[in-house]
Amino acid sequence: MFTLPAPLLLRAIGDDDHAFLSALYASTRHDLAALAAAPAVIAQLIAMQQQMQGQGYRTVFPHADYAIVECTGQPIGRLVTDAQADRLHLVDLALVPHARAQGHGSAVLRALQGAAAARGLALTLSVLHTNEDAARLYARLGFETVASDQVQRRMRWSAP
């Protein structure tokens, strides 16, 4: 793991974080929340999608590290990273709505860049084409697109 600048902190995910993680995931799924369906159906669909995401991450990144991002003692996000021999991969970074556009995401990314640089590794990630705000943030922080398909672009940062 690595250290974040105060007032941010990374900590291990605990059993009592389930409700927070569910609410966090739901806050990222505007596409599902906007469906014309009963709220209970939408909630069930979001829960199934969250479970599928978790299973997918565990399959593709079996050695990934999962952490809660806190600000002044309150959980504000989740970070999933996967350290490989040739790169550090950002699997997922999600922040609750009130913590977005506050500089917290940038601080986490800069800390990841520092950790990757200290190990002599590139930092890689994938971002959906529909997530334009995140793509702009990554570009501002020096990430370059190295590949793209119909769904996402793969980006890479290397220390100068």
Automatic annotation (TrEMBL):
<feature type="domain" description="N-acetyltransferase">
    <location>
        <begin position="8"/>
        <end position="160"/>
    </location>
</feature>
<keyword id="KW-0012">Acyltransferase</keyword>
<dbReference type="Pfam" id="PF13508">
    <property type="entry name" value="Acetyltransf_7"/>
</dbReference>
<dbReference type="InterPro" id="IPR000182">
    <property type="entry name" value="GNAT_dom"/>
</dbReference>
<protein>
    <submittedName>
        <fullName>GNAT family N-acetyltransferase</fullName>
    </submittedName>
</protein>
<dbReference type="InterPro" id="IPR050832">
    <property type="entry name" value="Bact_Acetyltransf"/>
</dbReference>
<keyword id="KW-0808">Transferase</keyword>
<dbReference type="InterPro" id="IPR016181">
    <property type="entry name" value="Acyl_CoA_acyltransferase"/>
</dbReference>
